[in-house]
Specification:
2 domains; Rna Polymerase Sigma Factor, Chain: A; 193 residues
Length: 193
């Protein structure tokens, strides 16, 4: 994985070194760069939608507290952040499950919260399906999707990383999205018949 490159863009390795020295501005830059990807990842892991923001916040607090231990993989801090988010989500889910379940009463299932939980479960299932479909793609389509759709990189950044033109990267992503839509529609038709 590569960090965004370009004029004025500081690589993750330099940010982490500055953060290790206590540089709050570098920490803010790292947070701005990777918080969306960590949020999407946490959203797929959390049992409850209401825990996602807490998981993201805790992930970056851990990164600050353990700033001298943050490792760069390739040229990115994102794998370390995602691994931390996964452990935090697992612990959050475990704590929530340990509390137990409320008894069912007359109003259970009638609240808006119930609908959000169903929507969240469906979204988690759909995200897993998308990730599986992307993992099954051939290279460079798989790498493009991982960079653009999962890591929130721009087409320009992804194209530069993979040595493609920006227009080629856009066309490949468009074709892949169309394939995913067709595949999803076929799956939904099979499940209803």
């Amino acid at each position: 994985m590569n960090t965004p490159r370009g004029p004025g863009v500081i690589p993750d390795g330099e940010l982490i070194a500055a953060i290790a020295r206590g540089d709050a501005a570098a920490y803010t830059t790292l947070l701005d760069r990777h918080s969306r990807a960590v949020f999407r990842y946490a959203w797929g892991l959390a049992d409850e939608r209401s825990d996602v923001d807490d998981i993201v916040q805790e992930t970056f607090l851990v990164a600050w507290r353990r700033r001298k231990d943050v490792r760069i993989v390739g040229s990115s801090a994102l794998p370390w952040l995602l691994t931390s988010a996964r452990y935090i989500a697992m612990n959050t889910n475990r704590r929530r499950r340990a509390v137990g379940f409320d008894e069912v009463d007359e109003t259970t299932g009638a609240s808006e919260a119930w609908y959000r939980q169903v929507a969240h479960a469906e979204a988690v299932q759909q995200l897993r399906w998308v990730r599986d479909e992307i993992a099954a793609l051939d290279s460079p389509d798989r790498e493009l999707c991982e960079l653009c759709l999962l890591q929130d990189r721009s087409y320009d950044e992804a194209a530069a990383v993979l040595g493609l033109s920006t227009s080629n990267a856009r066309k490949r992503i468009q074709r892949t999205r169309a394939r995913l839509r067709v595949s999803r529609a076929a799956q939904e038709m099979e499940s209803t018949s």
